[in-house]
Amino acid sequence: MLLALLAGMAMPFVQAQQQFWNSLPGGNVITNNEWFGADLLSTIPLSFETRVNQPMLWSTNNVNRMRLIGTNTTGAINGYTGLDLSGFLGLGPFGSTLVDQPFAALHIDNNGIQESAYRPWMRTGMLLTQGSDQGYFGLKDEGLGRNHSVIAWSDNTLNDPGPDNLRFIFTSNNTAAYGTAGQLDGLEAARFVPSATGNQTFFGVGDWFTAGIMPRERVDVLDGRLRIRQLPNDLAANGPFRVMVVDDTPAPSAERGVVKWVDPSIFGGGVNDCDWIVQTPDPHVSSVYDGSNCPWDRTHGAGIGMQFPRAKLHVFHNDYTLLGRTATWSRVVADDMISIFQGVLGESGPDPMDQYVGHVEGVHGFAYNGKVTIGVRGHGLFDNTVQGSAAGHLVGVQGEAEATNSQQISFMAGLYGTVIAPPGTPNAWAAFINGPAFITQPWTISDENLKTDIEDAAPVDAASALNALSLHTYTFNHAAAPTMVLPLGEHLGLLAPELEQVLPDLVMDAMHPAEYDSLGNVTAEAVPFKAVNMQGLIPYLIGGHQDQNATMEQMQQQIAAQNDAIAQMQELLAACCAHPASDERMHLQNGGLILGKDRDLIIQPNPFSEPPTVFYSLERAGRMQLMANSADGKQLVVLRDATQEAGESQLVWDTNALQPGMYYLTLLLDSEPVVKKAVKVGR
Fold this sequence. Notes:
Blueprint: H1 2-9, H2 11-17, E1 56-60, E2 63-68, E3 75-77, E4 80-83, E5 89-91, E6 106-112, E7 125-131, E8 133-143, E9 146-155, E10 166-170, E11 187-194, E12 201-205, H3 208-211, E13 219-221, E14 243-246, E15 259-262, E16 277-279, E17 284-286, E18 302-304, E19 313-315, H4 320-323, H5 462-467, E20 472-474, E21 491-493, H6 496-502, E22 507-512, E23 515-516, E24 522-524, E25 527-532, H7 537-577, E26 585-589, E27 592-596, E28 600-604, E29 613-618, E30 622-630, E31 635-644, E32 647-652, E33 661-669, E34 672-680
Parallel strand pairs: 5-6, 6-7, 12-13, 18-19
Antiparallel strand pairs: 1-2, 2-5, 3-4, 7-8, 8-9, 10-11, 11-12, 14-15, 16-17, 20-21, 22-25, 23-24, 26-27, 28-29, 29-32, 30-31, 30-33, 33-34
């Protein structure tokens, strides 16, 4: 089928050359300048396919060079069965009984004879076979959507004469001017060597090929120096530890250059040494301390940067070019599952035997006269790249005040902020919270003793003020102020410019401060914005509520009066309905009842179970209305509302939705009513 299609596509060209493609054994002779394919007039892709489940083979010089496998979902390799090998492409002879078909999506074979290193996950990638060895470069499916990139090198045995290595080789221009990289074998940068046990590998850095030896350590550096450009941030050792050294025994010792450890005490120190020492059995680094032979009393301390310290540990720092701009810096990095640790812990309190102490502070921060001056700064950070469970508790600054006897406490505050600024100073805040705030028991100052000039407020049209405000839905523009930690999602609220036009006292101009780095350079510009005093809206809400209550009371009084009038009308209507034989019909005019003789309203049938027909006549032209009401006077539906000439009319009243019971039909002509009782019965 395919050959017939291709023959049709190439027919003009082939006929011109008097050559025809067909399926005859041996094919046809191709002369110079002849080709097989699609010409410039083709409008569809050139397709090579077999409609039956057969592989496609490519050969030159009567030797098969490449093969494309058809559908094969029951493949078997290296004892693994039920493998899906469909559509795998192989380059090479595949002449072995064990390596006779592609094992992976792309398989390059050079007379491979061994399949024992194959694993079923070696599918999505390139697999190489030569002799008894194999290599794989691709993905390894670990399940749950995890596909790891893998370089796998394989050998049929670890001792024959193996094991084979994974080598990293660099080559350049093949001339002596390029050193080892220019030679035939190139420059080896590193290699992995499996151990004979098959349970570990050794990684060697260096040109092991030129040296003619093999790495024999988990990490083995052949030559050169080992450097750590950036030291790790793990916690410093706070228990028994050892110092790493390099064995310098002369060659040919096998221990030369091996990294080992020694006890740091061999470098000096001891109980009679007043320098910094490691104290045991409770290890910690210390200088002068109780129990040592070093002098100590309250006049002695450890000082850094001064000759006469004024505290047990006193740090004086005035030259940032030596160490940096921080006087002391504590950094704690946990290397175990530690539940609580502190970078800085301040604790102070009197000795139990001492008398009353007037003032005790755990941590006191004092900064002055800087472009950015911060007394105490707290920063809690959780990096989501850290392995393990998510952070359970993250706090920048935590303040806590606790007392066991509240009778002796005059004041308590977990956090106490004070700002002292000249009147009119903009952006002076005792507390500035850049993000959501949660307060379980909010209170505000409203004591009359702290207020003067107290008077009853003049009537305020609070309802009009509130009605002039507009509610909006919106999302915050985080790109305009990335340092303000604006809330996410859609919100409902007010716009400050609109509120300012109605209640200007509740809006003020504010400024989110700029941010600086340790050198005083601006890293984020200040952001001006309008702030709203939402608490100031409360009096207007109260006033609006009071106005609404007054209006509702007035409306309730009007409704009561209307109900009284309706009750009176129902009594009169009942009296009218009690005399159905009377020729007179009542209608209201100017609050009273008058009689009309030329207007009629008839319901047939009445009582009814199916929708009745309503007949009515008008004694004069005018605007008429015909409406149905319930027994308690509530209007149910307007059946007709129009301007009509005098005369008779009729309509069908749809009563299907009405429950059985008593109803009233009212016929109004220029607001003058005629009422008839209607009764619906069950079917």
